[in-house]
């Protein structure tokens, strides 16, 4: 352990003075919960991704819940998704008393394998919930076509994918336009833009958008802005069950600043990912690649270790040098919360998902990461690989 070296985190939120100033503005305005800042954030977000409607909520998990409810997922339905994702993906399905039906990921990436979807469809399938894992767009073109063919709605878990792009009819479009029926975003600090916690739903459907706005605010018939602006006394009604899934104006003000900086943040991350790809090209790791039709925001840079290399040992070696990493994405079906028969169904073998969790690690990548920091990560990995490989094949390392 070299105590003199500063440590390198795996991620770091890109928050600064502008966000602090924005908070001051809201605090002094006297309106701190869902209000004008949320409305402004929504229209700016919609414009950024090219969506007709954007509705802000408390986080991406609540966004997923509302999205699934809007497309009609109810008790006893099935939703096709991946196990290889953050647990919130499948939890949102269970909040609807529906059953997550897991299929495996692609051989050459960490996203849902569209070739496995059709065989998993049953008369009870009510939605496909695809994930743009680690910010890398999944094969939406294929997924949306399957959805259309079977009249099954497609919901995108775009928690990690703000600023990512997909080639659509010859044009680069933002994830969240949306290309499925609804897309859901997260503003957790581990994502590319953050509001502390927060989420957003985008859709082309005015009817879905109306429902999101109703449900996020207890099912209340009158909006905050309407009541506040009215010269008459208004009494509200509650015609159906709603939730408190609101975003606050404090969060939205931060989000607006983050959104302004997003193009720069994504460009910076793409440069860091490119630098990793160049520097790590020859040491024997499997590196993430973009399909021809996708541009990732590189929310995470996930590398695969060669078969037989000890994942924990690599992570410990890096940690001993002050470098934080994380294990690759989890597998939901392996958690105790999914241990019972009625918690999920696996419609295919999940062997690629399991192998990805066992063999991948997420390397540090964050705003203002320096070349020196990136090279420290690369050098530590290079030396470890050289040492491990030389145990098997004596090599002269120059
Ligand atoms: C982070 C994440 C979520 C949950 O987002 P929250 O805003 O924390 O609720 C859901 N799905 C995926 C794939 C995620 O990475």
Question: Could you outline the blueprint of secondary structure elements for this entry?
Answer:
Layout (H helix, E strand, L loop, with lengths): L16 H13 L6 H14 L3 E5 L2 H11 L7 E5 L5 H8 L3 E5 L13 H4 L4 E7 L8 H11 L3 E4 L7 E4 L2 E4 L7 E5 L12 E5 L2 H10 L8 H6 L19 H31 L14 E2 L5 E4 L6 H10 L5 E2 L17 E2 L4 H9 E4 L7 H22 L6
The chain binds pyridoxal-5'-phosphate.
Quick summary of this structure?
It is globular and about 80 Å long. The model has no long low-confidence stretch (mean pLDDT 95).
Characterise this structure.
With about 400 residues, the chain is an alpha/beta fold. The chain has 2 domains: about 15-260, Type I PLP-dependent aspartate aminotransferase-like (Major domain) (Aspartate Aminotransferase, domain 2, 3-Layer(aba) Sandwich); about 265-390, Aspartate Aminotransferase, domain 1. The chain contains 12 helices and 14 strands. The strands form 3 sheets. An 8-stranded mixed sheet has the order 1-9-8-5-4-2-3-13, with helices on both faces. The protein has a 3-stranded antiparallel sheet with strand order 7-6-10, with no helix packed on it. Strands 11-14-12 form a 3-stranded antiparallel sheet. Helix 1 packs antiparallel against helix 9 (about 250-280), helix 2 packs parallel to helix 9 (about 250-280) and helix 3 (about 60-70) crosses helix 4 (about 90-95). The mean pLDDT is about 95.
